[in-house]
Amino acid sequence: MDYAEHVTDLVGNTPLVKLNALTQDVEPLVLAKVEYLNPGGSVKDRIAQRMIEAAEASGELRPGGTIVEPTSGNTGVGLAMVAQRKGYRCVFVCPDKVSEDKRNVLKAYGAEVVVCPTAVPPEHPESYYSVSDRLTREIEGAWKPNQYANPHNPESHYHSTGPEIWKQTEGKVTHFVAGVGTGGTISGTGRYLKEVSEGRVKVVGADPEGSVYSGGTGRPYLVEGVGEDFWPDTYDCGVADEIIPVSDADSFTVTRRLAREEGLLVGGSCGMAVAAALELAKRCGPDDVIVVLLPDGGRGYLGKVFNDTWMSSYGFLSPESQDATVSDVL
Ligand code: PMP
After folding, report:
1. Protein residue with its CA nearest to atom 3 in ligand 1
2. Which terminus of the chain, N or C, has fewer Cβ atoms within 10 Å?
3. Is residue 183 lining ligand 1, measured as CB closer than 6 Å?
4. 320, HSE (Cβ side, Cα atoms, 13 Å)
5. Are 36 and 17 in contact (CB under 8 A)?
6. How many alpha carbons lie under 13 Å from residue 156 in its C-beta half-sphere?
7. Which parts of the chain are coiled coil (predicted)?
8. Taking a C-beta distance cutoff of 8 angstroms, is the pair 80, 112 a contact?
9. Is the CB of 234 within 6 Å of ligand 1?
10. Which residues 6+ apart lie within 8 Å of 192 measured at CB?
11. How far is CA 79 from the centre of its chain?
12. How close is the Cα of 83 to the center of ligand 1, in Å?
């Protein structure tokens, strides 16, 4: 019989899928690493597993302990899934702008969710940063993974994502493209690919226009999960050879095309990474193999990227690209 002992044993080993329609005008082979096929639905399953195991090994997290993290999304799902197996309690702290749907996903895994006001500065005692710090101090046996500073975030990619890509491409990968949020993905995967290829693999970051990684000062931009207004410890600025800034409009247009033209229903940061990969591909030749990482799936964004009214309200939809209604085609 062929089965996993637990769903968390299925984290990683995600497939590479060739992009076809979107790459018609470029010469390289462009392969997407499809991270929504992780059991928690995103690339963050990888870091959750490794951060928890490292904290157990160091004694920071003990049996019966509580995981406290300011997160509303993918990292929370990964942590909650691993915590379920190991019997830890999870308390996630998020700002009130986070949709109820997202909070309910975390609750469905058995996590507790504490909601804090969005409209206060980070140093305010009610901000979600302050509340998560206070809960970590007050709850006995609490441990805060802190994905923005935890070295096991990039390490997880150094030990899993990087070696997987090298093996799957039989060492033929020439470029690796990823969006940058905490920087864990690009720093860990990029460092591995550079080491194993003796510097041959080029590493390219994709960043929302306005974020620090591409020379901005912070927000505002609408793509979620990527870009920062500070430099996290988990970002190794020695790894990326280049950072390509991508506008919200391009990120969302490519995200919608990935669903309609490639059958890949993915999140907005995936469209951003693919937009950067396509720009890079224009400068590359037929022997190049570009691997672009797609962090999560698109179901969490049906009310935004995939919603015509939302897209139009920001001016991201040209009239001809809107959904045809039944009355249009009759
Ligand atoms: N896309 C999404 C949807 C994410 O949640 C994240 C993580 N913040 C990223 C991209 C970026 O990954 P990383 O934190 O490893 O830089």
Report:
1. 225
2. N
3. yes
4. 0
5. no
6. 23
7. none
8. no
9. no
10. 157, 158, 159, 161, 162, 163, 166
11. 14
12. 20
Alpha helix (H) ranges present in the chain? 44-58, 74-86, 100-108, 128-138, 152-156, 162-168, 184-196, 248-262, 268-282, 308-313, 326-329
Instruction: Indicate if ligand 1 lies below 6 Å from the C-beta of 190.
Output: no
Report the nearest-CA residue for atom 2 of ligand 1: 225
pLDDT along the chain (330 residues), means of 10: 98 98 98 98 98 98 97 92 98 87 93 90 88 96 97 98 98 98 97 98 96 86 87 96 97 98 97 98 98 96 95 85 59
Q: Sign of the C-alpha dihedral, residues 146, 93, 183, 12?
A: positive
Active site residue 304: no
Q: Residue 123 has which token pair?
A: 């140093």
| Torsion (CA) 101, 102, 105, 106 in degrees, nearest 10 | -140
Q: Phi and psi dihedrals of 130, rounded to 5?
A: -65, -45
Q: Which of 44, 144, 194, 304 is catalytic?
A: 44
Question: pTM of the entire structure?
Answer: 0.95
